[in-house]
Amino acid sequence: MDLSKNRKFFELAINQEKQLDFERIFHNNNEIHLEIGSGRGEFIERISTMYSIINFLGIDLKEKRIKTILRKLDTKNHSNVRLAKIYIDENVTKWIPESSIEKIYLMFPDPWPKKKHNRRRLINANFLNALNKILKVNGLIEITTDHQNYAEWIIDIFKERENFKAVFQNGFTHKIQPNHIETHFEIKKREEGFAPIFMNYLKVREL
Hints:
Blueprint: H1 3-10, H2 22-26, E1 32-36, H3 42-50, E2 55-59, H4 63-72, E3 81-84, E4 101-107, H5 125-134, E5 135-145, H6 148-159, E6 164-166, H7 184-191, E7 197-203
């Protein structure tokens, strides 16, 4: 595999002072789905072939993971995928246009289980403020974790948000969802006895 060729096609060079033009990038105006923390790339590699008329942007901070994902992609079967190595914070609308994302996936974010490390958890009020800016009204955030305390933390944070509505009763479900894609990490944790917890939130209005 020519990794440099794949990098040139799939990886976006992000200028944090210039918004992405998704129509120019993907050569269409199909809806955009964003995966935050793409890991080994199993999810984005498979879902992009299941839904070829949707454009997928995968984000991860680690160069090693970006390389791993690049090895799974090819321009023929994954032309609707792009990758970026960048962190999402309150400045996200400088490079992702407001209300441009239809769905956001957060698959097994690090739970930082020790109480003294809880402040490092990705999902917090400021992070949701950033996601709110780029997500369309009626857009969806799909979150999966296998950590009970983190699930409770996430549910409590969303309860404070009047612009998001939980899709599942009590905020979560253990039921496998249609077209679910099982990743290496999920399989490993299931073998250890930890079942995934699914939480979906619909953006019902702007703040």
